[in-house]
Amino acid sequence: MPREFTRSDRVADAIQRSLAHAIQMEVRDPRLGMVNINSVSVSRDLTWAKVYVTFVGVDSSEEAEASVAILNKAASYLRNVVSKDLTIRSTPKLQFFYDKSTVVGQKLSHLIDKAVAKDREGKEQNEE
């Protein structure tokens, strides 16, 4: 019976959980607000982990990129914290990226809601 998830998927999930806790409790940079870890993808040889993040309350992409730079500077420290938390032989090197998909998704959802409301107004006016 084949496994449902590969080892890299299981390691990625464990890293995501560990990083969420580590960033919240260990990183004390006041410039860094609330961080959401959207996903983690680990290379097949478990040497690199790409961490995709978004930030709560950050409106501009410049602020988000500055926060990503803070996380990338703290990557070696976070890797050390994750390595103590996980029981794997070698911990992947962490690389943080800003994930714009949630922002784009919210904008599209807002546009769809706006269009649906406009259509309802048009139907109500035509019925009268």
What report would you give on this structure?
By secondary structure, the chain is of the alpha+beta class. The protein has a single domain (7-99), classed as K homology (KH) domain (GMP Synthetase, Chain A, domain 3), CATH 3.30.300.20. 55% of the residues lie in helices and 19% in strands. It is built from four helices and three strands. It has helices at residues 7-25, 61-73, 75-85, 101-127, and strands spanning 34-42, 48-56, 93-98. Strands 1-2-3 form a three-stranded mixed beta sheet, covered by helices on one side. Strand 1 and strand 2 (48-56) form a beta hairpin. Helix 1 crosses helix 3 (75-85). The mean pLDDT is 89.
Q: Determine the number of helices (DSSP H or I, runs of at least 4 residues).
A: 4
In the CATH scheme, what's the topology name? GMP Synthetase, Chain A, domain 3
Distance from N terminus to C terminus (CA atoms, Å) equals 63 Å
SSE ordering: HEEHHEH
Q: Which architecture does the CATH hierarchy give at level 2?
A: 2-Layer Sandwich
Write down the overall mean pLDDT.
Answer: 89
Q: Indicate the overall shape.
A: elongated
- How many structural domains does the protein architecture include? 1
| Major beta sheet summary | 3 strands, mixed
Q: Biggest sheet: strands side by side, in what order?
A: 1-2-3
**So, the CATH homologous superfamily?**
K homology (KH) domain
Instruction: Using the CA coordinates, give the radius of gyration.
Output: 20 Å
